[in-house]
Write a structure and sequence with these properties.
390 residues; eight-stranded mixed sheet; 20 strands; globular
Length: 390
């Protein structure tokens, strides 16, 4: 029943992870990517313990550190108008075997791409999929009119996936009323090995170190009524970012003032796909379940998906794909809901509700740090590689 060949559409984190997981077990894998080359794009990401379990199972944990991944020591929460911490989630208290890393997206993609090539994965760059057909031997049609066939086609090409449309039809994205700027700046601020969430009325800033601590990644989110285009690669004037966070002082204000070339990202809400698999075609990552960035789980969920998908078809062939969807869908729905809840917590306006919420955070961090961290056991302690035979 084991498949012999597969096509993976998309050379992002989820697609490359799936390619490695399949190829290391003898499947002939070809990755199709519309970009002409795998190059540095995006900014930072957080590899939480649940994502690290997958990279560790693929033998790649050491390579992350060789590429300058920073081991996270804490998640710190602050109010924009106070320099002291509201709370500190101590990541050094994670159970043995768990670790948390911050790294540049391009560095992780490079680690994965190198590993894929070592496992004889073939790459076709600069090709774009026009249509996907399910069946006993599913087929891709490219924009140049040529076709590709394989026993398994994996749609790992994000929110605009042609495979998602083939299985579910088009969906209407809803603008959330929030935009995010992404940027990296030189670490001239003594930013430590922690993720810092600085909260204000209707906006917040997330910052954490990259590349051995030499850089800081910034994600600045603002609530607004005006629509912004979806995606994270739209260049914007840094003056717009500074205007949105005017009045912010301390290290948060200094980092925002240092931004030179931000990108603007309109946050849109997409439904979780009803159909993740059919006729030898399967979805993973954002193609199946786009999530808002307020829990830092997009890349981690894609890696979990990739492992589960590969293991499912390696054990039972494409006929076993319904089990993949059944395994993954409840978990990603829970993650998406948790991420949406954080957006509300981060943007509270001054008043009794914010005072009460911040008081709970402050007291929990001071008197029950292990309990605060334990509230994330369902997320960070989930090891998809232990739930499926290797």
């Amino acid at each position: 029943m084991q498949i012999r060949n597969a096509l993976v559409v998309g050379a992002g984190i989820g697609g490359l992870t799936a390619a490695i997981a399949l190829a290391r077990r003898g499947v002939a894998v070809t990755v199709l990517e519309q970009a002409p080359a795998i190059r540095e794009v995006g900014a930072g990401l957080q590899v939480s313990p649940n994502g690290l379990f997958v990279l560790r199972a693929l033998g790649l944990e050491k390579r992350l550190q060789e590429r300058g991944a920073v081991r996270g020591r804490a998640v710190v929460m602050r109010s924009f108008d106070r320099e002291e911490d509201l709370a500190r989630l101590d990541l050094t208290l994670l159970p043995t075997g768990q670790a948390y890393f911050f790294m540049h997206r391009a560095d992780l993609v490079d680690v994965l791409a190198r590993a894929a090539r070592e496992h004889n994965v073939t790459f076709e760059m600069g090709v774009q999929v026009r249509d996907v057909q399910t069946g006993d031997m599913p087929e891709l049609t490219l924009t140049d009119g040529t076709t590709r066939r394989a026993e398994l086609i994996v749609g790992a090409d994000g929110i605009h996936s042609r495979a998602r449309i083939a299985l579910n039809g088009a969906d209407d994205a809803a603008f959330t009323g929030q935009v995010a700027w992404r940027a990296t700046v030189a670490n001239r601020f003594g930013h430590g090995n922690h993720a810092m969430v600085t909260m204000g009325a209707g906006r917040h800033l997330v910052s954490y170190p990259l590349r051995g601590g030499d850089m800081v990644n910034l994600v600045a989110v603002e609530e607004r009524k005006s629509w912004a285009a979806e995606g994270w690669n739209h260049a914007d004037d840094p003056a717009n970012l500074r205007a949105a966070f005017a009045g912010w002082g301390g290290i948060a204000g200094e980092m925002i003032d240092a931004v030179e070339a931000p990108t603007l990202w309109g946050l849109h809400r997409h439904p979780v796909a009803e159909v993740w698999q059919q006729g030898g075609v399967a979805l993973l990552g954002d193609a199946a379940h786009p999530t808002l960035p307020f829990l830092a789980q997009g890349a981690n969920m894609a890696m979990e998906d990739a492992w589960a998908l590969a293991d499912t078809v390696l054990r039972g062939g494409v006929a076993a794909l319904p089990a993949y969807q059944a395994m993954r869908k409840p978990r990603v729905i829970k993650v998406i809901k948790a991420a949406e809840g954080n957006a509300w917590r981060f943007h509270l306006k001054p008043g009794p509700v914010r005072f009460a919420a911040h008081s709970v955070i402050r007291l929990g961090g001071r008197f029950a740090p292990k309990r605060m961290l334990g509230a994330f056991d369902w997320l960070y302690g989930f090891d998809v590689t232990a739930r499926t035979p290797r």
